[in-house]
């Protein structure tokens, strides 16, 4: 079930769990920025001239028909693909040529369309691995298992448990991730992404497969994450209720190009967007709240 | 120049045998994405079946081309059956298991056949009889035997036959479909289980032929004889592009030639570099493997398919 | 801190005690089996680190053994006596100095093997599953062929006359074998209980997700390879000095496969599983020794039976004896160690 009984915002802020690695204020570099990026696979141009600026605490949606290139953009932003044109900057820093783990360490976290959890590990371990970025001890300390190690391990565990608590998963910490329900698995993935204290969170279809109640709960959670964690969120979604209700700004993609950008109200009425979704009568779109 | 041609012919003869073996690896990998470690033992069984059949038919004292052909057919039948059983018993139940499990099983079957072979055939080497009359030939300065030519001729004939099967029959088309996309193929109504079985049988038949041909050129056979030729044939398959049929043929030839010339330039290499290159020929082949996988994993003729994230 | 030093000293004391007593209590045959169990534990646990915990399918472990064996033997054979007697007057007595020479040689062997692990690992670890297996197999073979052609260490005839362990030190084989096995297990357990271990497990479970979570997957994989190779090298060195003989034929793919069987039997990823399986796989062949007389051609049936065992195991219980778990997850006499936290309820 989606609802989570969780500690309130004040408790969270004190615990250090929510501070992003570097929180850019207004006027500083955007949390993540893509300037005219594009990519070709052989002869196929999967994406071109994509531009996006995401600032801290913005919640932006990326929508478009299947195959429009949304996940491809995520893959470029996280370093899985190297764009063949354009530039990407994370917190002002160009990231061309960096491997995904390096980009992750700069503050970009993501979830996957097809849920990629560490299935044979416990729920807790999944989240703790998310915190790998912030490793403070070396292999020698791991061998000695002295004060440094035990302190760091305790902190990691506490922070991970606190994160799980936000999502209502703390009671299942020692269970295998494989045994979780579909909805819980999705939430665990988000949890893991947050464990690295990112500045930017990329969510790839987090509401996929959820019913209305779960999706509503997810919307709440995403909003709260944005507020309490002070991060920027970019969201790929097909569920229009979710997108229209929580995103401040929406980009619409089709055949690898941005065909519209703006607040939800405007996007809903944009004839180009409606046409791209092929046969969505204007009436149905207007009823989306 | 003559020596060059001499080595060329030898290299092509050995290479043909590697090519036949490599085809089995590449086809099975194509449809199942599995490295059939046991393939080298099918090769060995082919050679031994040929040996026993030849003796049973009394070919040692009465060599004939017809007898040689019969012996080869018998080997092919036995090995085809063995390959079929191997797939059915050891690999099919693991179709849905993680790949490592199948790989370990394949290794297990390979070792089981090797050491079981030692028990059944005895560990001492046997000598493959001269199943048809051997004669020396002179082709413009190059001294060779009709065995070498026979090997090359038979190998080429079999490879041509395989090309025809793969590219001009429905079965071949089905096999290619399965190797491109297993799920789609089965959704399209292709009997994937049967196709896979047939692929194994086909590969094993070629391996049996390779075993017999090997026995002709290198008569000393023993139950562990498959290990190195098998590994090298696998390298050949990877070199050509694993899953790619013409690639396996090309790769086999190349590996045969590399080996031959490594030995050929050994005296020169010793003089110039003080390295007995010939002794390292096995290591050279493995080094080729490492090099391909690091620099061009899709092989010479293959296509690189990145993982979809 | 003092407590740890005390425990360490206790361990060494135990090792020395056992080393002195066991040869008297057991007959030489039993003692030898214990030595082999120790060496096999080291080999299995070190391979488990690579195959089981990091999920990288490496079947060239014997190659690292070989490097460790030959490097350490080379040092003790050619330089040992000189080094051991070169103790300054007033320094440690020759026995202890010899101990250091031996340890130094073994360590050098381990480091050489680790270096080889790095050389092998770096290019190979872009590859997945089957390809990685073949490449590691190829490297194992390359190493073996190279050693085969080095005349200084005997080449194909083998390296006879490797100094025995006793030559340098009052302790015999058991001391070092025991300590090495214990060290390998401790290192493995501690690695797994740290962020590094979790990174390795993440790489095993899903490399793409691990990379996205900030794990440097290449470094993790190479690291596992290097550590695994190090211990294999030390084990090889011990084996060489125990047998006083080395031959490249001892380090073929078959040897790698035997170690792999141990890891698979124990359960890939389970450290205690590897320990158990190493013991079982050392004792079982000895128990079957007599069967040889009844087999056709008097062939040793071990390999046939083990390969059959492996096939049956894969078809019926591929997770091995303990699967991913450790013995204390299965037998509830001991809780899994971790720093106390809010939800430290024991495993079911």
Verbal overview:
The complex is a heterotrimer of chains A (289), B (309) and C (348). A six-stranded mixed beta sheet of chain A has the order 6-7-8-3-9-10, with helices on both faces. A four-stranded antiparallel beta sheet of chain A has the order 2-1-4-5, with helices on one face. Chain A has 289 residues and is of the alpha/beta class. In chain A, 38% of the residues lie in helices and 20% in strands. Chain A has one domain: Rossmann fold (3-Layer(aba) Sandwich). By secondary structure, chain B is mostly helical. Chain B contains twelve helices and four strands. The mean pLDDT of chain B is 88. Chain C has a domain of 216 residues. Helices cover 70% and strands 1% of the residues of chain C. In chain C, strands 1-2 form a two-stranded antiparallel sheet. Chains A and C meet through helix 3, helix 4, helix 5, helix 6 and helix 7 of A and helix 8, helix 9 and helix 10 of C.
SSE blueprint and pairings:
The complex is a heterotrimer of chains A (289), B (309) and C (348).
Chain A: H1 9-14, E1 32-41, E2 44-54, E3 59-63, H2 70-77, E4 85-90, E5 93-94, H3 100-105, E6 108-110, H4 123-130, H5 139-144, H6 147-166, H7 182-195, E7 200-204, H8 212-229, E8 232-236, H9 240-246, E9 249-254, E10 257-262, H10 264-269, H11 271-276, H12 282-286
Chain B: H1 2-32, H2 39-56, H3 65-91, H4 99-121, E1 126-127, E2 136-139, E3 142-145, H5 146-168, H6 170-180, H7 182-187, H8 192-217, E4 220-221, H9 227-240, H10 245-264, H11 266-273, H12 281-295
Antiparallel strand pairs in B: 1-4, 2-3
Helix pairs in contact in B: 1-5, 1-6, 1-8, 1-9, 1-10, 2-3, 2-4, 2-8, 2-9, 3-8, 5-6, 5-8, 6-8, 9-10, 9-12, 10-12
Chain C: H1 2-25, H2 28-53, H3 61-78, H4 80-85, H5 94-124, H6 129-148, E1 159-160, H7 165-168, H8 173-192, H9 195-205, H10 207-212, H11 217-243, E2 245-246, H12 253-266, H13 271-287, H14 302-316, H15 327-330
Antiparallel strand pairs in C: 1-2
Features:
heterotrimer; A: 289 residues; alpha/beta; Rossmann fold; six-stranded mixed β-sheet; four-stranded antiparallel β-sheet; 12 helices; 10 strands; 20% strand; disordered C terminus; B: 309 residues; mainly alpha; ABC transporter involved in vitamin B12 uptake, BtuC; two-stranded antiparallel sheet; two-stranded antiparallel ribbon
